[in-house]
Design a protein that fits this description.
single chain, alpha+beta, seven-stranded antiparallel beta sheet, five-stranded antiparallel beta sheet, 6 helices, 16 strands
Amino acid sequence: MELLHSGKVRDVYADGEDVILVASDRVSVYDVVLPTPIPEKGKLLTQLSLWWFDQLVDIVPHHVISGTDVPDEWAVRAVRCQRLDVIQVECIARGYLAGLGLKEYEKHGSVSGVPLPEGLVEGSKLPEPIFTPTTKASGGAHDEFITFDDIVDRVGADLAARLRDLTIQLYSRGAETTARNGIIMADTKFEFGWSADGQLMLGDEVLTSDSSRFWPAEAWEPGRTQFAFDKQFVRDWAAGTGWDKTPPAPPVPDDIVAATSARYIEVYERITRRTWPNEETA
């Protein structure tokens, strides 16, 4: 198979008309891959994503062909997919204020041009979920906030509205699902693309600990940093080391690796109500 692309976490291979997405155990923060892998992370991301695709297929078709018809060496961590012509927009939904969304709000009182009430703090619940797209940067560049009108200029009003509406629908379904299991989904991002036959499809990964912020509902408290079931925990550790966020990144200590792995496993088990590992993932 031909290696088409090697990203910060995933490698993409061509296999005839299909592509194979392989999730590694690499972890990136601030657009830099850390030198220390998180054991089983790629398998956890893949299996959680496959679970979510099944939950969301009634909202929008997805690119997954099979989670099992993959080379043996990539079993559990790879997915066979349709090729998509990816729309070059990061479709982000936010139900709570955190991360770059919080910084944008503190500067402008809005995120991606969406005005928000005064007085919000880190972890605040928003009046309703909002669509806060960004550019889809490549080559080491950083994603930048853009407005809905910017997307209209790029892809037209009809497709821009579809992307916005699907993003909010998918986030809302996901947030309702995680809430039933005591987890707040603060925000998440989606990727969409066109299939060979012209269908708009959901691609990449969905609602994982790499693409979403997950907080335990019982510990949520606005005004402070939230306990994270996602890679925010690694970001916070990296920021506390004094590292300047340029390569090379520092190695991750064993206790941080172990704690990160435990959080990824816990959120998988709480969301899916399956143990890790199980018959499908062993």
